[in-house]
Design a protein that fits this description.
This protein is α/β, with parallel strands linked by helices. Helices cover 39% and strands 14% of the residues.
């Protein structure tokens, strides 16, 4: 792996932190490709991966052990010149502190996390220390949620594609995008006006309420009863997540629907975590996926109505199910009921991520590149001292100019008066 390193390129580090595993990667990019007048929204250079690995982060592994494994990985592949990595990007599950102006929580899993052992865990410090150089130079870092980061990557990809098609024309330039991941839970990342949305915390769109299909008697997933909004009943995650779908399936089997055996496994939360039973469903048209498609279509309709999204991208394990995207798109059109003008080709508006399983990790790599870009642009800006010095010079010039004009006016008036009055006295 070390042989792939090129001294002419910038070496960056990225982490995708998930509830079951942390994925880490070291990659390199051309540093000259991350500058320019539109630097923060341009250039999607394909990163060259130097090394990558994956570590368990489930309940069987303590957060400290997972973070130590990540740190050891980065130390192993760190440049030998003492400079450390050029930048670090971390995309991780929420709720998480993403406000850089709040250092007490930035890079920390918040106390409201449903993952109890990760509450109040500072994941940034040990990883940042492993990535920093020995020369004391600050390490550019960006931390985002594991859905905001891929949302940013999808936005930049769409904008890059649009520029190639339209050239440098600014009209109708894309300014928003959303990324929805559907797996154990449902997460929503948002980019509006070219920036990821934070606000009070960060988006938690998987917990918005939805209109269930007619006749649906499902009471919501058991996880929602613990700490989710609306008790997890009739929410996107409470219907479309793999946990909810598994519990619905187990409940159906218990009730004897399509089974004939009322002694099947009960629909408990522990059983739902064994989500492999979903893979046993061979029929892509099973009614389970109608419920999932409806919930996700409700979410898409809400994003279009509330935020006027220009691009909605779906990813996650459940989206591998054949035909699900088509069900979601068609149901979204039905729910909107002709209120919005929609494109003839809905795939230009609602689509699946081309990054597949690497959507989150790719988002983390984009964050690292953004951190590097931002650092480079900061270096190009004049220091505060030079700004103050320039301001004082401008003020001095202005004062001098006015002083010169006043003195000139007085001298001119005196000369005129002398010329007018002088001859009379003679």
């Amino acid at each position: 792996m070390e042989s792939k390193k090129n001294n002419g390129k910038a070496l960056l580090a990225a982490v995708e932190g998930g509830g079951t595993s942390f994925r880490v990667v070291v990659f390199q990019v051309n540093p000259s490709a991350v500058t320019g007048s539109d630097a923060l929204e341009s250039n999607l250079e394909e990163p060259e991966v130097v090394a990558r690995d994956e570590f368990d982060s489930s309940h069987d592994n303590s957060p400290q052990e997972t973070l130590q494994q990540c740190a050891a990985f980065f130390q192993k592949h760190k440049p030998s010149n003492g400079k450390g990595y050029a930048a670090l990007g971390i995309a991780i599950f929420g709720p998480v502190g993403v406000h850089e102006n709040q250092p007490e929580t930035y890079g920390t899993i918040l106390s409201t996390s449903p993952k109890a052992i990760w509450r109040n865990v500072d994941f940034l410090t040990p990883i940042r220390q492993a990535c920093q150089g020995s020369n004391g130079e600050p390490l550019p870092v960006l931390v985002e949620t594991d859905v905001n980061a891929p949302a940013l990557a999808e936005f930049m990809r769409a904008k890059s594609k649009q520029k190639k098609e339209k050239g440098n024309r600014k009209e109708n330039e894309i300014s928003s995008a959303s990324y929805i991941t559907v797996g154990t839970g449902v997460g929503v990342g948002l980019v509006i006006n070219g920036k990821t949305v934070h606000g009070r915390m960060h988006p938690e769109g998987g917990h918005i309420p939805v209109q269930p299909l007619e006749g649906d008697t499902f009471k919501g997933y058991s996880w929602g009863q613990q700490c989710s909004p609306f008790g997890g009943k009739n929410t996107v995650e409470g219907i479309a997540s793999s946990v909810a779908l598994t519990e619905r399936l187990l409940q159906r089997q218990q009730d004897g629907v399509r089974s004939g055996d009322a002694k099947n496994e009960t629909s408990t939360a522990n059983s739902a975590r064994e989500r492999s039973v979903l893979a046993d469903i061979r029929d892509d048209d099973d009614e389970l996926f109608d419920h999932a498609a409806n919930a996700l279509a409700n979410l898409c309709a809400t994003l279009l109505l509330m935020l006027s999204m220009e691009k909605i991208v779906l990813g996650g394990g459940l989206m591998k199910r054949k035909g699900l995207l088509d069900k979601i798109t068609k149901r979204t059109v039905i729910l909107l009921n002709g209120y919005l003008e929609l494109p003839a080709d809905m795939s230009s508006l609602i689509t699946a991520s081309e990054y597949g399983n690497d959507a989150g990790l790719n988002g983390a790599m984009v964050l690292a590149q953004q951190a590097l870009k931002r650092h480079q642009l900061t270096q190009l800006e004049p220091s505060q001292d030079s700004v103050e010095e320039r301001r004082m010079k401008q003020e001095a010039f202005g004062i001098g100019l006015w002083h010169g004009m006043i003195v000139g006016a007085v001298v001119t008036a005196a000369l005129f008066q002398w010329l007018r009055v002088g001859p009379r006295r003679k």
